[in-house]
Amino acid sequence: MTSLPHIQVFALGGTIAMTPGAASASPGVVPSLTATDLVAGVPEIAKVAHVTAETLMQVGSANLTLAHVAEVCRRAEAGSAAGYVVTQGTDSMEETAFAAFLLYEGDAPIVFTGAMRSANIPGADGAANLLAAIRVAASGGAPHVSVVMNDEIHDPARVRKSHTSSVAAFTSSGGPEGQIVEGRVFLRGPLPVRHAPMKLDAAKAQPVALLTATLDDTTALVEALPSLGYKGAVIAAYGGGHLSEPWADAAAKLAAEMPVVLATRTGAGRVLEKSYGYRGAEIDLIERGLIPSGGLDTRKARILLSLLLGSYGTEDAKARFYGFASGI
Fold it and tell me: Domain spanning 6-187: which superfamily?
């Protein structure tokens, strides 16, 4: 009989680990289930893999940091499992998974998963998501890093949480990379090309602001960034990459002091580079020093720029950012 692959589960907390708090505390759910609890709650896992489980923390995912992601990557790089599954809250999963996508240099796949419904309510999805993630990690053909939710496999560079509560909250531009059907893992096509390691150091990440352009807003926040200690900025612009003339002037001035990435606030689609020529449109902004974010959304652009600024000089970071983002 062929032995089952060894999969390591790292639990960080989140809705998948939440149950109702004590009566004297908050009436809502709080992180309480351990990694061992989660695995024990899904007997079917024993047919798929030999699983070991470790609880690294029990927090809501808004409390996770790049340092936490780096620690998960370090443990996976030093381990000997055939694959790794990380359970966490869904609120920041699109960011933590992308950070791992950039930082992780190991060979065994890492799969991020969680739940949209806590275990105490009807239709809880945590058990199904955990089983699906373990199936992907144990499949022998999983992406280097992925997000598995609702029986779908997502590329960390493209996935986003697009709904506050739906079990189908996780969506990707261009659709998922694959699915789990009747217990089998199906990938839509060849695995995404794994980027060359960029030797990024999460401990050196620099503060990068994320600002959203909105109708008739002042430029005060844009102008204040240097004095607030930020070393870079991402601007979520209108449409394909457009700003009002006052914002365009302020952004151009800021780009002379620090890297400024031009992204879109729409939530889907690439930032344009050569379509609109009026003042404040993408051609003008790029000519005045802003860096187009390619297919990266605002939050992922911020993580990439933050890590690059900490590991490379400003000009090198700008070139590396564009080289990476333009290929997404």
Answer: L-asparaginase, N-terminal domain (3.40.50.1170)
